[in-house]
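Board notes (copied after class):
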Amino acid sequence: MPDRLSAQMAFLVEAEKLKTVCRAGRIIDGSRRENSAEHSWHLALYALTLADQAGPGVDINRVLRMLILHDLVEIDVGDVPIHSANGQAHGSAEVQAAEAAAADRIFGLLPAGLAAEFRALWDEFEAAETPDAVFAKSLDRVQPVMLNLANDGGTWPEFNVTYDQLESRVGHKVARGAPALWDWVRVRARAWFAGQE
């Protein structure tokens, strides 16, 4: 038991570092960048609040677990913005390999059974093929959009984001897991971008 507890506590101490990883987006008052731990907490709240937007068979408890774990790899890799300069780095093979190595290291701190369980949830989220993961991924994509809308575009001007980029990089993923949610957000995003022309 002491060895197991030591491993669990080592993982929790390591996970604390997620609070030091700054994301591209700003918090709602625009005063500073959001950190990845705040993002994970906010996504968990999104899942609880928007559970009625999930498709049939989605288990919100599993979604919550995925969302709490999904960005721990950023402790090693950092945040890779979806609207990076070329728009490709976010899903590149290089970033995916770095994130997989980070998942091996970070989840590997845990006792074997728990390590395998957490890693399987992380892999499921990344693959976004199960109903739970599809819904979790849709929330992960929509939350930054909502922060930008609440901040009069937030970091969209900083990253030169266009409405078409938002649709192609974000919209289809949100719509896949929560179509009514994307319909609601799309109207507001389109209006914001139209107001910038």
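Comment from the instructor: The chain has nine helices and two strands. The CA atoms of residues 24 and 81 lie 6 Å apart.
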